[in-house]
Automatic annotation (TrEMBL):
It comes from the Bacteria. InterPro entries: Peptide/Ni-bd, SBP_5, SBP_5_dom. The lineage of its organism: Bacteria, Pseudomonadati, Pseudomonadota, Betaproteobacteria, Burkholderiales. Keywords: Signal. This is ABC transporter substrate-binding protein. Residues 106-530 form the Solute-binding protein family domain.
Amino acid sequence: MPTLKPIRQVAHFLLLALLVGLGVNTAIAGQGIAQYGKPKYPDGFAHFDYVNPNAPRGGTLVLPNPGQRTSFDKFNPFTLRGITAPGIDLMFESLAEGSADEVSSIYGLLADDIQVAKDHKSVTFHIRSEAKFSDGSPVLAADVKYSFDTLMSGKAHPRYKTTFADIKEAVVLSERSIRFDFKNDNAELPILAGTFPVFSRNWGKRPDGSMIPFEKLAFEAPIASGPYLIESFKAGKSIVYKKNPNYWADQLSKPLNVRVGFYNFDRVLYKLYSDDAVRLEAFKAGEFDALVEYRAKIWAKGYVGSKFDKGILLKKAFLNHNGAGMQGFAMNVRRPIFKDVRVREALGYALDFEWLNRQIFFDQYSRINSYFTNSDLSANFDGPRKPTEAELKLLKPLKAKYPQWVPDAVFGPMPAAPSTKPPGSLRQNLKKARELLMHAGWQYRDGALRNEKGEPFRFEIVEDGGFFLRVISAYVRNLEKLGVQVDIRTSDFALHQKRMNEYDFDMTTVRFQDSQNPGNELWDRFGSQAAKEKGSDNVIGVQSPVVDALIDEITKAQNREQLRTATRALDRVLWNSYYVVPQWYNPTHRVAFRHEMRYPEPPLYYSAELWIMQNWWKEESK
Protein backbone atom coordinates (compact mmCIF):
# COMPACT_ATOMS: atom_id res chain seq x y z
CA MET A 1 0.00 0.00 0.00
CA PRO A 2 1.19 3.51 -0.67
CA THR A 3 2.69 6.31 1.22
CA LEU A 4 0.41 8.79 -0.48
CA LYS A 5 1.44 11.79 -2.44
CA PRO A 6 -0.21 15.07 -1.51
CA ILE A 7 -3.81 15.60 -2.44
CA ARG A 8 -2.79 19.04 -3.69
CA GLN A 9 -0.60 19.18 -6.79
CA VAL A 10 1.88 22.03 -6.24
CA ALA A 11 4.23 23.05 -9.02
CA HIS A 12 7.85 22.14 -8.38
CA PHE A 13 9.05 25.71 -8.06
CA LEU A 14 6.63 26.24 -5.17
CA LEU A 15 7.51 22.85 -3.71
CA LEU A 16 11.17 23.86 -3.57
CA ALA A 17 10.22 27.12 -1.95
CA LEU A 18 8.48 25.21 0.81
CA LEU A 19 11.18 22.58 1.23
CA VAL A 20 13.79 25.24 1.85
CA GLY A 21 13.47 28.50 3.73
CA LEU A 22 15.07 31.89 3.72
CA GLY A 23 15.70 34.37 6.43
CA VAL A 24 17.71 37.53 6.48
CA ASN A 25 20.67 38.65 8.52
CA THR A 26 22.14 41.93 7.32
CA ALA A 27 21.77 43.49 3.92
CA ILE A 28 23.32 41.06 1.50
CA ALA A 29 23.78 40.94 -2.23
CA GLY A 30 24.91 38.05 -4.37
CA GLN A 31 23.68 35.07 -6.31
CA GLY A 32 22.76 33.12 -3.19
CA ILE A 33 21.40 33.91 0.27
CA ALA A 34 20.76 31.68 3.27
CA GLN A 35 18.51 31.66 6.26
CA TYR A 36 21.09 31.03 8.94
CA GLY A 37 24.65 32.12 8.26
CA LYS A 38 26.00 31.75 4.75
CA PRO A 39 24.74 29.59 1.87
CA LYS A 40 26.69 26.43 1.20
CA TYR A 41 27.69 27.48 -2.31
CA PRO A 42 29.67 30.71 -2.90
CA ASP A 43 29.05 33.11 -5.75
CA GLY A 44 30.41 31.66 -8.97
CA PHE A 45 30.17 28.02 -7.87
CA ALA A 46 30.36 25.55 -10.77
CA HIS A 47 27.37 23.31 -9.99
CA PHE A 48 25.44 21.69 -7.17
CA ASP A 49 27.26 18.76 -5.55
CA TYR A 50 24.41 16.31 -6.14
CA VAL A 51 24.39 16.50 -9.96
CA ASN A 52 26.60 14.89 -12.59
CA PRO A 53 28.07 17.86 -14.47
CA ASN A 54 29.18 15.53 -17.25
CA ALA A 55 25.86 13.78 -17.71
CA PRO A 56 25.30 13.06 -21.41
CA ARG A 57 22.38 14.85 -23.00
CA GLY A 58 19.89 13.47 -25.47
CA GLY A 59 17.24 10.82 -25.88
CA THR A 60 13.69 10.66 -24.64
CA LEU A 61 12.52 10.10 -21.09
CA VAL A 62 9.19 8.29 -21.03
CA LEU A 63 7.22 8.48 -17.79
CA PRO A 64 3.77 7.33 -16.64
CA ASN A 65 1.10 9.50 -15.04
CA PRO A 66 2.39 10.92 -11.76
CA GLY A 67 -0.04 10.36 -8.92
CA GLN A 68 -3.58 9.25 -9.60
CA ARG A 69 -4.52 11.53 -12.50
CA THR A 70 -5.63 9.56 -15.53
CA SER A 71 -6.36 12.52 -17.82
CA PHE A 72 -5.91 16.28 -18.16
CA ASP A 73 -7.91 19.17 -19.54
CA LYS A 74 -5.62 22.22 -19.36
CA PHE A 75 -2.06 23.55 -19.53
CA ASN A 76 -2.57 26.30 -16.96
CA PRO A 77 -1.41 24.93 -13.58
CA PHE A 78 -2.31 28.05 -11.63
CA THR A 79 -6.11 27.99 -11.69
CA LEU A 80 -8.48 26.11 -9.43
CA ARG A 81 -10.65 24.26 -11.90
CA GLY A 82 -9.56 21.39 -14.10
CA ILE A 83 -6.70 18.87 -14.19
CA THR A 84 -3.30 20.10 -15.34
CA ALA A 85 -1.22 18.16 -17.85
CA PRO A 86 1.63 16.28 -16.16
CA GLY A 87 5.09 17.80 -16.54
CA ILE A 88 3.86 21.30 -17.28
CA ASP A 89 6.31 22.60 -14.66
CA LEU A 90 9.06 21.95 -17.23
CA MET A 91 7.97 25.15 -18.94
CA PHE A 92 8.20 27.51 -15.96
CA GLU A 93 11.04 29.05 -13.98
CA SER A 94 11.42 31.44 -11.07
CA LEU A 95 13.82 34.18 -10.08
CA ALA A 96 15.77 31.80 -7.83
CA GLU A 97 16.36 28.07 -7.39
CA GLY A 98 16.46 26.06 -4.16
CA SER A 99 19.29 23.70 -3.31
CA ALA A 100 18.31 20.10 -2.51
CA ASP A 101 21.24 19.50 -0.14
CA GLU A 102 20.49 22.42 2.19
CA VAL A 103 17.59 23.30 4.40
CA SER A 104 17.57 27.00 3.79
CA SER A 105 19.30 28.52 0.77
CA ILE A 106 18.35 29.78 -2.70
CA TYR A 107 20.44 30.83 -5.69
CA GLY A 108 19.68 33.06 -8.63
CA LEU A 109 18.11 31.52 -11.73
CA LEU A 110 16.37 34.21 -13.78
CA ALA A 111 17.99 36.67 -11.40
CA ASP A 112 21.76 37.16 -11.21
CA ASP A 113 21.67 39.22 -8.03
CA ILE A 114 19.56 39.09 -4.86
CA GLN A 115 19.63 41.76 -2.18
CA VAL A 116 17.78 41.63 1.13
CA ALA A 117 17.20 45.00 2.78
CA LYS A 118 18.80 45.80 6.12
CA ASP A 119 15.41 46.25 7.76
CA HIS A 120 14.28 42.85 6.44
CA LYS A 121 11.20 44.46 4.90
CA SER A 122 12.03 43.93 1.24
CA VAL A 123 14.13 41.96 -1.24
CA THR A 124 15.35 43.14 -4.65
CA PHE A 125 16.16 40.95 -7.65
CA HIS A 126 18.09 41.89 -10.76
CA ILE A 127 17.05 39.85 -13.83
CA ARG A 128 19.71 38.46 -16.15
CA SER A 129 19.90 40.26 -19.46
CA GLU A 130 20.08 36.87 -21.24
CA ALA A 131 16.84 35.50 -19.72
CA LYS A 132 14.17 35.03 -22.40
CA PHE A 133 10.74 33.55 -22.74
CA SER A 134 9.92 30.78 -25.19
CA ASP A 135 8.71 33.30 -27.78
CA GLY A 136 12.12 35.02 -27.72
CA SER A 137 11.01 38.09 -25.79
CA PRO A 138 13.11 39.15 -22.78
CA VAL A 139 12.09 38.41 -19.21
CA LEU A 140 11.52 41.84 -17.70
CA ALA A 141 10.57 43.16 -14.30
CA ALA A 142 7.13 44.01 -15.66
CA ASP A 143 6.57 40.32 -16.46
CA VAL A 144 7.60 39.33 -12.95
CA LYS A 145 5.18 41.87 -11.48
CA TYR A 146 2.43 40.69 -13.83
CA SER A 147 2.99 37.08 -12.75
CA PHE A 148 2.89 37.97 -9.05
CA ASP A 149 -0.15 40.22 -9.36
CA THR A 150 -2.01 37.59 -11.38
CA LEU A 151 -1.32 34.85 -8.85
CA MET A 152 -2.51 37.16 -6.07
CA SER A 153 -5.72 37.99 -7.90
CA GLY A 154 -8.97 36.09 -7.82
CA LYS A 155 -8.08 34.61 -11.21
CA ALA A 156 -5.57 32.13 -9.78
CA HIS A 157 -5.86 29.28 -7.29
CA PRO A 158 -6.56 30.74 -3.82
CA ARG A 159 -3.52 28.96 -2.35
CA TYR A 160 -1.23 31.59 -3.87
CA LYS A 161 -3.05 34.44 -2.19
CA THR A 162 -2.77 32.64 1.13
CA THR A 163 0.87 31.64 0.74
CA PHE A 164 2.06 35.06 -0.44
CA ALA A 165 -0.25 37.06 1.82
CA ASP A 166 2.62 38.74 3.69
CA ILE A 167 4.14 40.16 0.50
CA LYS A 168 2.67 43.63 0.24
CA GLU A 169 3.49 44.36 -3.39
CA ALA A 170 5.93 43.98 -6.26
CA VAL A 171 7.55 47.25 -7.33
CA VAL A 172 9.27 47.65 -10.71
CA LEU A 173 12.47 49.65 -10.17
CA SER A 174 13.83 49.46 -13.69
CA GLU A 175 13.53 47.30 -16.77
CA ARG A 176 15.28 44.39 -15.05
CA SER A 177 15.07 45.22 -11.34
CA ILE A 178 12.12 44.43 -9.11
CA ARG A 179 11.57 44.84 -5.38
CA PHE A 180 9.13 42.94 -3.20
CA ASP A 181 7.93 44.80 -0.11
CA PHE A 182 6.79 42.84 2.93
CA LYS A 183 4.03 43.54 5.41
CA ASN A 184 6.11 42.30 8.33
CA ASP A 185 9.43 40.78 9.33
CA ASN A 186 8.87 37.23 8.12
CA ALA A 187 12.06 35.27 7.50
CA GLU A 188 10.53 33.17 4.74
CA LEU A 189 9.28 35.99 2.54
CA PRO A 190 12.42 36.55 0.44
CA ILE A 191 12.37 32.93 -0.70
CA LEU A 192 8.68 33.09 -1.52
CA ALA A 193 9.34 36.20 -3.57
CA GLY A 194 12.17 34.43 -5.34
CA THR A 195 10.52 31.13 -6.12
CA PHE A 196 7.05 31.82 -7.44
CA PRO A 197 6.57 30.99 -11.16
CA VAL A 198 7.23 33.68 -13.76
CA PHE A 199 5.37 33.85 -17.09
CA SER A 200 4.96 36.35 -19.90
CA ARG A 201 2.39 39.12 -20.01
CA ASN A 202 1.62 37.87 -23.54
CA TRP A 203 0.39 34.44 -22.49
CA GLY A 204 -3.17 34.35 -23.80
CA LYS A 205 -2.85 37.25 -26.25
CA ARG A 206 -4.95 36.77 -29.39
CA PRO A 207 -3.78 37.79 -32.88
CA ASP A 208 -5.96 40.90 -32.68
CA GLY A 209 -4.21 41.98 -29.47
CA SER A 210 -7.05 41.13 -27.10
CA MET A 211 -6.38 38.89 -24.11
CA ILE A 212 -7.97 35.62 -23.07
CA PRO A 213 -8.84 35.99 -19.36
CA PHE A 214 -6.21 34.19 -17.27
CA GLU A 215 -8.75 31.98 -15.52
CA LYS A 216 -10.00 30.78 -18.92
CA LEU A 217 -6.62 29.76 -20.32
CA ALA A 218 -6.84 26.04 -21.08
CA PHE A 219 -4.87 24.58 -23.99
CA GLU A 220 -3.10 27.84 -24.88
CA ALA A 221 0.60 26.97 -24.65
CA PRO A 222 2.29 28.83 -21.78
CA ILE A 223 4.81 31.52 -22.66
CA ALA A 224 7.47 31.04 -20.02
CA SER A 225 11.24 30.71 -19.70
CA GLY A 226 11.67 27.01 -18.85
CA PRO A 227 13.82 24.51 -20.74
CA TYR A 228 10.99 22.67 -22.52
CA LEU A 229 8.17 23.37 -24.97
CA ILE A 230 5.04 21.37 -25.73
CA GLU A 231 5.70 19.42 -28.90
CA SER A 232 2.45 17.47 -29.14
CA PHE A 233 -0.33 16.00 -27.04
CA LYS A 234 -3.38 13.77 -27.20
CA ALA A 235 -6.04 15.33 -25.04
CA GLY A 236 -6.14 13.55 -21.72
CA LYS A 237 -3.89 10.70 -22.88
CA SER A 238 -0.30 11.81 -23.45
CA ILE A 239 1.92 14.83 -23.83
CA VAL A 240 5.41 15.31 -25.30
CA TYR A 241 7.79 18.08 -24.25
CA LYS A 242 10.84 18.90 -26.35
CA LYS A 243 13.92 20.81 -25.24
CA ASN A 244 13.69 24.39 -26.43
CA PRO A 245 16.56 24.71 -28.97
CA ASN A 246 16.80 28.39 -28.01
CA TYR A 247 16.58 27.87 -24.26
CA TRP A 248 18.23 30.94 -22.82
CA ALA A 249 20.36 29.15 -20.20
CA ASP A 250 21.95 27.01 -22.94
CA GLN A 251 22.95 30.09 -24.91
CA LEU A 252 25.24 31.61 -22.26
CA SER A 253 28.99 31.86 -22.76
CA LYS A 254 29.46 30.09 -19.42
CA PRO A 255 27.22 27.26 -18.14
CA LEU A 256 24.64 28.48 -15.65
CA ASN A 257 25.62 26.77 -12.40
CA VAL A 258 22.08 26.08 -11.17
CA ARG A 259 21.31 24.34 -14.48
CA VAL A 260 24.45 22.20 -14.86
CA GLY A 261 23.43 18.53 -14.68
CA PHE A 262 19.74 19.37 -15.00
CA TYR A 263 17.24 18.46 -17.73
CA ASN A 264 19.40 16.06 -19.69
CA PHE A 265 16.75 14.68 -22.06
CA ASP A 266 15.85 16.09 -25.48
CA ARG A 267 12.25 15.03 -24.91
CA VAL A 268 10.03 14.07 -22.01
CA LEU A 269 6.94 12.01 -22.84
CA TYR A 270 4.17 11.35 -20.33
CA LYS A 271 1.76 8.48 -20.97
CA LEU A 272 -1.36 8.34 -18.86
CA TYR A 273 -2.65 4.90 -17.93
CA SER A 274 -6.14 4.04 -16.73
CA ASP A 275 -5.09 2.44 -13.44
CA ASP A 276 -2.10 1.20 -11.44
CA ALA A 277 -2.32 -2.38 -12.66
CA VAL A 278 -2.26 -1.32 -16.31
CA ARG A 279 0.65 1.02 -15.58
CA LEU A 280 2.73 -1.75 -13.97
CA GLU A 281 2.14 -4.13 -16.87
CA ALA A 282 3.03 -1.36 -19.31
CA PHE A 283 6.33 -0.85 -17.47
CA LYS A 284 7.13 -4.55 -17.68
CA ALA A 285 6.35 -4.41 -21.39
CA GLY A 286 8.91 -1.62 -21.84
CA GLU A 287 6.51 1.24 -22.55
CA PHE A 288 8.27 3.73 -20.26
CA ASP A 289 11.55 4.23 -18.42
CA ALA A 290 10.93 4.68 -14.71
CA LEU A 291 8.26 4.96 -12.06
CA VAL A 292 7.99 5.55 -8.33
CA GLU A 293 6.03 2.88 -6.45
CA TYR A 294 3.93 3.84 -3.42
CA ARG A 295 2.37 0.47 -2.62
CA ALA A 296 4.27 -1.93 -0.38
CA LYS A 297 2.56 -5.10 -1.61
CA ILE A 298 3.12 -4.31 -5.28
CA TRP A 299 6.73 -3.39 -4.56
CA ALA A 300 7.24 -6.73 -2.83
CA LYS A 301 5.35 -8.95 -5.28
CA GLY A 302 4.70 -7.06 -8.51
CA TYR A 303 8.21 -6.13 -9.61
CA VAL A 304 9.29 -9.64 -10.51
CA GLY A 305 9.72 -11.65 -13.68
CA SER A 306 12.27 -12.57 -16.31
CA LYS A 307 13.18 -8.97 -17.17
CA PHE A 308 14.06 -8.30 -13.55
CA ASP A 309 15.99 -11.59 -13.40
CA LYS A 310 17.97 -10.63 -16.50
CA GLY A 311 18.65 -7.09 -15.28
CA ILE A 312 16.66 -5.43 -18.07
CA LEU A 313 14.49 -3.86 -15.40
CA LEU A 314 15.83 -2.79 -12.01
CA LYS A 315 14.31 -1.77 -8.67
CA LYS A 316 15.93 0.14 -5.83
CA ALA A 317 14.88 1.85 -2.61
CA PHE A 318 16.68 5.21 -2.37
CA LEU A 319 17.15 6.67 1.11
CA ASN A 320 15.98 10.23 1.69
CA HIS A 321 16.12 12.61 4.63
CA ASN A 322 12.81 14.31 3.92
CA GLY A 323 10.63 15.11 6.84
CA ALA A 324 7.79 12.60 6.57
CA GLY A 325 5.11 15.05 7.62
CA MET A 326 1.62 13.72 8.27
CA GLN A 327 -0.36 11.09 6.41
CA GLY A 328 -3.64 9.79 7.73
CA PHE A 329 -7.40 9.59 7.63
CA ALA A 330 -8.42 13.25 7.92
CA MET A 331 -11.76 14.23 9.40
CA ASN A 332 -13.65 17.21 8.01
CA VAL A 333 -14.40 19.07 11.24
CA ARG A 334 -16.88 21.23 9.37
CA ARG A 335 -19.16 18.21 9.81
CA PRO A 336 -21.07 18.19 13.13
CA ILE A 337 -20.26 14.53 13.74
CA PHE A 338 -16.55 15.35 14.14
CA LYS A 339 -16.86 18.49 16.28
CA ASP A 340 -16.20 16.71 19.58
CA VAL A 341 -12.48 16.02 20.14
CA ARG A 342 -13.38 12.88 22.13
CA VAL A 343 -15.05 11.46 19.05
CA ARG A 344 -12.02 12.20 16.92
CA GLU A 345 -9.68 10.63 19.46
CA ALA A 346 -11.89 7.54 19.70
CA LEU A 347 -11.76 6.90 15.96
CA GLY A 348 -7.99 6.72 16.15
CA TYR A 349 -8.13 3.67 18.41
CA ALA A 350 -9.82 1.63 15.68
CA LEU A 351 -6.83 1.67 13.32
CA ASP A 352 -4.60 -1.36 13.96
CA PHE A 353 -1.34 -0.27 12.35
CA GLU A 354 0.64 -3.28 13.56
CA TRP A 355 -1.80 -5.69 11.90
CA LEU A 356 -1.75 -3.69 8.67
CA ASN A 357 2.04 -3.51 8.63
CA ARG A 358 2.33 -7.23 9.21
CA GLN A 359 -0.44 -8.49 6.95
CA ILE A 360 -0.48 -5.94 4.11
CA PHE A 361 2.68 -3.84 4.13
CA PHE A 362 5.33 -6.57 4.54
CA ASP A 363 6.71 -4.65 7.57
CA GLN A 364 8.00 -1.86 5.34
CA TYR A 365 6.55 1.07 7.29
CA SER A 366 6.94 2.92 10.56
CA ARG A 367 4.13 4.65 12.44
CA ILE A 368 3.61 8.37 12.17
CA ASN A 369 3.68 10.03 15.59
CA SER A 370 3.85 13.71 14.66
CA TYR A 371 2.83 16.28 12.07
CA PHE A 372 6.58 16.68 11.42
CA THR A 373 7.64 13.03 11.51
CA ASN A 374 11.28 12.16 10.81
CA SER A 375 12.39 15.73 11.53
CA ASP A 376 13.97 17.57 14.46
CA LEU A 377 10.95 19.87 14.25
CA SER A 378 8.79 17.11 15.71
CA ALA A 379 7.76 17.41 19.36
CA ASN A 380 8.82 13.80 19.93
CA PHE A 381 11.95 13.78 17.77
CA ASP A 382 14.16 12.88 20.74
CA GLY A 383 11.51 10.93 22.64
CA PRO A 384 8.17 11.62 24.34
CA ARG A 385 9.39 14.56 26.41
CA LYS A 386 7.43 17.35 28.03
CA PRO A 387 7.54 20.84 26.49
CA THR A 388 10.74 22.81 26.99
CA GLU A 389 10.72 26.14 28.82
CA ALA A 390 10.80 27.89 25.46
CA GLU A 391 7.74 25.95 24.28
CA LEU A 392 5.93 26.69 27.54
CA LYS A 393 6.50 30.42 27.01
CA LEU A 394 4.43 30.09 23.86
CA LEU A 395 1.82 27.64 25.12
CA LYS A 396 0.96 28.97 28.59
CA PRO A 397 -0.24 32.44 27.49
CA LEU A 398 -2.30 30.82 24.73
CA LYS A 399 -3.84 28.43 27.25
CA ALA A 400 -4.77 31.37 29.46
CA LYS A 401 -6.31 33.31 26.57
CA TYR A 402 -7.93 30.44 24.66
CA PRO A 403 -8.36 27.57 27.16
CA GLN A 404 -10.71 25.57 24.95
CA TRP A 405 -8.19 25.56 22.07
CA VAL A 406 -5.17 24.26 24.01
CA PRO A 407 -5.67 20.66 25.17
CA ASP A 408 -4.28 19.94 28.63
CA ALA A 409 -2.29 17.08 27.13
CA VAL A 410 0.07 19.48 25.34
CA PHE A 411 1.82 20.11 28.67
CA GLY A 412 2.77 16.46 29.06
CA PRO A 413 4.84 14.06 26.94
CA MET A 414 3.62 13.71 23.35
CA PRO A 415 1.37 10.63 23.36
CA ALA A 416 2.15 7.99 20.78
CA ALA A 417 -0.42 6.85 18.24
CA PRO A 418 -2.54 3.95 19.53
CA SER A 419 -0.70 0.66 19.28
CA THR A 420 -1.60 -3.01 19.53
CA LYS A 421 1.91 -4.12 20.43
CA PRO A 422 1.83 -6.38 23.51
CA PRO A 423 0.84 -5.79 26.23
CA GLY A 424 -1.54 -3.59 24.20
CA SER A 425 -4.26 -5.07 22.00
CA LEU A 426 -7.02 -4.04 19.66
CA ARG A 427 -9.56 -5.14 22.26
CA GLN A 428 -8.11 -2.73 24.82
CA ASN A 429 -8.02 0.08 22.25
CA LEU A 430 -11.65 -0.43 21.29
CA LYS A 431 -12.63 -0.35 24.97
CA LYS A 432 -10.91 3.05 25.30
CA ALA A 433 -12.70 4.22 22.17
CA ARG A 434 -16.06 3.09 23.53
CA GLU A 435 -15.49 5.04 26.76
CA LEU A 436 -14.60 8.20 24.87
CA LEU A 437 -17.65 7.88 22.65
CA MET A 438 -19.89 7.31 25.66
CA HIS A 439 -18.61 10.49 27.35
CA ALA A 440 -19.28 12.32 24.06
CA GLY A 441 -22.91 11.19 24.15
CA TRP A 442 -22.76 8.14 21.88
CA GLN A 443 -23.95 4.74 23.12
CA TYR A 444 -24.60 1.41 21.46
CA ARG A 445 -28.26 0.48 21.26
CA ASP A 446 -30.66 -0.96 18.70
CA GLY A 447 -27.81 -2.34 16.62
CA ALA A 448 -25.86 0.89 16.20
CA LEU A 449 -23.94 3.61 17.98
CA ARG A 450 -26.47 6.39 18.59
CA ASN A 451 -26.71 9.82 20.16
CA GLU A 452 -29.43 11.05 22.50
CA LYS A 453 -31.74 11.72 19.54
CA GLY A 454 -31.37 8.14 18.39
CA GLU A 455 -29.40 9.13 15.30
CA PRO A 456 -26.81 6.55 14.22
CA PHE A 457 -23.12 7.43 14.05
CA ARG A 458 -22.57 7.24 10.30
CA PHE A 459 -20.11 8.86 7.90
CA GLU A 460 -18.52 8.37 4.50
CA ILE A 461 -14.88 7.76 3.54
CA VAL A 462 -14.01 8.99 0.04
CA GLU A 463 -10.90 8.05 -1.97
CA ASP A 464 -9.59 8.65 -5.50
CA GLY A 465 -9.49 5.08 -6.72
CA GLY A 466 -9.61 1.63 -5.21
CA PHE A 467 -5.93 1.12 -4.37
CA PHE A 468 -6.56 1.93 -0.66
CA LEU A 469 -9.61 -0.28 -0.20
CA ARG A 470 -7.84 -3.06 1.71
CA VAL A 471 -6.67 -0.60 4.34
CA ILE A 472 -10.04 1.13 4.54
CA SER A 473 -11.87 -2.18 4.81
CA ALA A 474 -9.68 -3.29 7.71
CA TYR A 475 -10.24 0.05 9.46
CA VAL A 476 -13.99 -0.06 8.85
CA ARG A 477 -14.27 -3.59 10.31
CA ASN A 478 -12.89 -2.27 13.58
CA LEU A 479 -15.16 0.79 13.51
CA GLU A 480 -18.15 -1.49 13.01
CA LYS A 481 -17.23 -3.26 16.26
CA LEU A 482 -17.91 0.06 17.94
CA GLY A 483 -21.27 0.36 16.18
CA VAL A 484 -20.04 2.99 13.73
CA GLN A 485 -21.53 2.76 10.26
CA VAL A 486 -19.21 3.71 7.39
CA ASP A 487 -19.93 4.12 3.69
CA ILE A 488 -17.00 3.87 1.28
CA ARG A 489 -17.03 5.79 -1.98
CA THR A 490 -14.32 5.83 -4.65
CA SER A 491 -14.11 8.03 -7.74
CA ASP A 492 -11.66 9.10 -10.41
CA PHE A 493 -9.04 11.71 -9.64
CA ALA A 494 -10.90 14.63 -11.25
CA LEU A 495 -14.12 14.07 -9.33
CA HIS A 496 -12.23 13.44 -6.09
CA GLN A 497 -10.27 16.66 -6.50
CA LYS A 498 -13.49 18.58 -7.10
CA ARG A 499 -14.94 17.18 -3.88
CA MET A 500 -11.80 18.15 -1.99
CA ASN A 501 -11.89 21.67 -3.41
CA GLU A 502 -15.49 21.98 -2.24
CA TYR A 503 -14.79 20.19 1.11
CA ASP A 504 -17.59 17.82 0.17
CA PHE A 505 -16.51 14.83 2.26
CA ASP A 506 -16.57 13.39 5.78
CA MET A 507 -13.24 11.55 5.90
CA THR A 508 -10.46 11.02 3.37
CA THR A 509 -6.79 10.14 3.24
CA VAL A 510 -4.40 13.09 3.14
CA ARG A 511 -0.66 13.51 2.89
CA PHE A 512 0.60 16.91 3.97
CA GLN A 513 3.61 18.01 1.95
CA ASP A 514 7.00 17.32 3.52
CA SER A 515 9.00 20.40 4.47
CA GLN A 516 12.42 20.83 6.02
CA ASN A 517 11.69 24.43 6.87
CA PRO A 518 7.96 25.05 7.30
CA GLY A 519 6.60 28.54 7.00
CA ASN A 520 3.89 30.38 5.08
CA GLU A 521 2.46 27.21 3.54
CA LEU A 522 1.11 26.39 7.00
CA TRP A 523 -1.40 29.23 6.63
CA ASP A 524 -2.91 27.40 3.66
CA ARG A 525 -2.79 24.05 5.44
CA PHE A 526 -4.05 24.92 8.92
CA GLY A 527 -4.92 28.65 8.94
CA SER A 528 -8.43 29.75 9.88
CA GLN A 529 -8.86 31.94 6.81
CA ALA A 530 -7.85 29.12 4.44
CA ALA A 531 -10.54 26.89 5.96
CA LYS A 532 -13.12 29.30 4.53
CA GLU A 533 -11.65 29.42 1.02
CA LYS A 534 -12.45 26.73 -1.52
CA GLY A 535 -9.50 24.75 -2.81
CA SER A 536 -7.15 25.41 0.10
CA ASP A 537 -4.98 22.75 1.69
CA ASN A 538 -6.96 23.10 4.92
CA VAL A 539 -9.27 20.25 4.04
CA ILE A 540 -9.64 19.41 7.73
CA GLY A 541 -11.25 22.77 8.40
CA VAL A 542 -9.00 23.82 11.30
CA GLN A 543 -10.13 27.22 12.61
CA SER A 544 -8.18 27.76 15.80
CA PRO A 545 -6.81 31.07 17.12
CA VAL A 546 -4.07 29.07 18.85
CA VAL A 547 -2.99 27.37 15.65
CA ASP A 548 -3.01 30.76 13.90
CA ALA A 549 -0.85 32.25 16.66
CA LEU A 550 1.69 29.44 16.49
CA ILE A 551 1.91 29.62 12.69
CA ASP A 552 2.60 33.31 13.13
CA GLU A 553 5.45 32.44 15.52
CA ILE A 554 6.85 29.98 12.98
CA THR A 555 6.86 32.53 10.18
CA LYS A 556 8.55 35.12 12.43
CA ALA A 557 11.32 32.78 13.62
CA GLN A 558 14.76 34.34 13.12
CA ASN A 559 16.85 31.23 13.72
CA ARG A 560 16.55 27.46 13.68
CA GLU A 561 16.05 27.23 17.44
CA GLN A 562 13.09 29.61 17.37
CA LEU A 563 11.63 27.70 14.44
CA ARG A 564 12.07 24.39 16.26
CA THR A 565 10.38 25.73 19.40
CA ALA A 566 7.37 27.13 17.57
CA THR A 567 6.97 24.12 15.32
CA ARG A 568 7.08 21.68 18.22
CA ALA A 569 4.47 23.74 20.07
CA LEU A 570 2.22 23.64 17.00
CA ASP A 571 2.85 19.90 16.68
CA ARG A 572 1.64 19.35 20.25
CA VAL A 573 -1.56 21.33 19.68
CA LEU A 574 -2.44 19.67 16.37
CA TRP A 575 -1.57 16.18 17.57
CA ASN A 576 -3.64 16.43 20.74
CA SER A 577 -6.59 17.85 18.81
CA TYR A 578 -6.95 14.53 16.94
CA TYR A 579 -7.83 15.92 13.54
CA VAL A 580 -6.21 12.98 11.74
CA VAL A 581 -5.96 9.25 12.37
CA PRO A 582 -2.20 8.90 11.73
CA GLN A 583 -0.96 6.26 9.33
CA TRP A 584 2.65 5.44 8.37
CA TYR A 585 5.76 6.52 6.47
CA ASN A 586 8.74 5.08 4.65
CA PRO A 587 12.15 6.84 4.67
CA THR A 588 12.93 5.60 1.17
CA HIS A 589 11.78 6.26 -2.39
CA ARG A 590 10.99 3.01 -4.20
CA VAL A 591 11.96 3.41 -7.84
CA ALA A 592 11.84 0.90 -10.70
CA PHE A 593 13.66 1.73 -13.93
CA ARG A 594 15.12 0.39 -17.14
CA HIS A 595 18.74 -0.75 -17.09
CA GLU A 596 19.97 2.03 -19.38
CA MET A 597 18.83 4.73 -16.95
CA ARG A 598 21.59 6.43 -14.96
CA TYR A 599 21.51 8.72 -11.93
CA PRO A 600 23.83 10.66 -9.60
CA GLU A 601 23.90 10.12 -5.86
CA PRO A 602 20.60 11.47 -4.53
CA PRO A 603 20.57 14.73 -2.55
CA LEU A 604 19.42 14.99 1.05
CA TYR A 605 15.92 16.28 0.35
CA TYR A 606 14.08 15.43 -2.82
CA SER A 607 10.95 14.25 -4.57
CA ALA A 608 11.71 11.07 -6.51
CA GLU A 609 9.68 12.09 -9.56
CA LEU A 610 11.41 15.47 -9.78
CA TRP A 611 14.83 13.92 -9.24
CA ILE A 612 14.31 11.54 -12.16
CA MET A 613 13.02 14.28 -14.44
CA GLN A 614 15.67 16.82 -13.50
CA ASN A 615 18.91 14.91 -12.88
CA TRP A 616 18.81 11.44 -14.47
CA TRP A 617 20.09 10.59 -17.93
CA LYS A 618 20.04 7.64 -20.30
CA GLU A 619 22.95 5.60 -21.59
CA GLU A 620 22.01 4.62 -25.10
CA SER A 621 22.70 1.06 -26.23
CA LYS A 622 25.70 0.69 -28.51
